[in-house]
Amino acid sequence: EAGVAQSPRYKIIEKRQSVAFWCNPISGHATLYWYQQILGQGPKLLIQFQNNGVVDDSQLPKDRFSAERLKGVDSTLKIQPAKLEDSAVYLCASSLDLRGQRSGNTIYFGEGSWLTVV
Amino acid sequence: ELKVEQNPLFLSMQEGKNYTIYCNYSTTSDRLYWYRQDPGKSLESLFVLLSNGAVKQEGRLMASLDTKARLSTLHITAAVHDLSATYFCAVRSGNTGKLIFGQGTTLQVKP
């Protein structure tokens, strides 16, 4: 079974530039997440989609970050303009459906997109 | 606001020894996850714990959950070098699936 696919794996940009990351979740997974992991810390949720609707974007810095999930499958996360503190790994994850589920569905993570802002 | 704390944050141990990583969380939750992360890699799911008293084992790792104490433990038995990695616990917040992660515990197993 194919896992969560992300691209690009690595990106170096200057501050104030823009960058976009792409994610393809596991086939059939309705829930998609974007997490930000700063070096030495645990991941922090930026945004969660259920199909193509946003479930939680409370920690997304909306003045510079945006995300979309058209057609409820692939998703893109954009940062514009980037700041130095945005240097992190951006992890995409997916799961079947956690809303109202009692079965404890596993959340699968992609390998991440490593961003360095200089 | 749900907070998750792990300790220790760093653990250096000899092969063959046993040790336990602790994960405390601040508010009620119905689901707790343990993940492993190797340097430069993504998160690998180890365990999902759903109920009070749940215990799961895989190889040299055993995880347990005490929802009344809001505590989960990850016990390592007879550590081997291959277990060297960073281990995260994560707790589900609310009913939307949002996970709140601990800071991670970096385990270094020396030969």
In short:
The complex is a heterodimer of chains A (118) and B (111). By secondary structure, chain A is mainly β.
Question: How would you describe this protein?
Answer:
- The complex is a heterodimer of chains A (118) and B (111).
- Chain A is an all-beta fold and 118 residues long.
- Chain A has strands spanning 5-7, 10-13, 19-24, 31-37, 44-50, 53-56, 65-68, 75-79, 88-95, 108-109, 113-117.
- Chain A contains no helices and eleven strands.
- The termini of chain A are far apart.
- The relative contact order of chain B is 0.33.
- The mean pLDDT of chain B is 92.
- In chain B, strands 2, 4, 5, 9, 10 and 11 form a six-stranded mixed beta sheet that branches.
List the helices and strands and how they pair.
The complex is a heterodimer of chains A (118) and B (111).
Chain A: E1 5-7, E2 10-13, E3 19-24, E4 31-37, E5 44-50, E6 53-56, E7 65-68, E8 75-79, E9 88-95, E10 108-109, E11 113-117
Chain B: E1 4-7, E2 10-14, E3 19-25, E4 32-37, E5 43-49, E6 55-58, E7 61-66, E8 71-76, E9 85-93, E10 98-101, E11 105-110
Parallel strand pairs in B: 2-11
Antiparallel strand pairs in B: 1-3, 3-8, 4-5, 4-9, 6-7, 7-8, 9-10, 9-11
**Which percent range describes the beta-strand content of chain B?**
over 45%
Helix % of chain A is under 10%
Order of helices and strands of chain A: EEEEEEEEEEE
Please give the radius of gyration of chain B in angstroms.
13 Å
How many strand elements of chain B?
Answer: 11
How far do the termini of chain A sit from each other?
Answer: 37 Å
Number of strands of chain A: 11
Provide keyphrases for this structure:
heterodimer; A: 118 residues; mainly beta; 7-stranded mixed β-sheet; 4-stranded antiparallel β-sheet; B: 111 residues; 58% strand
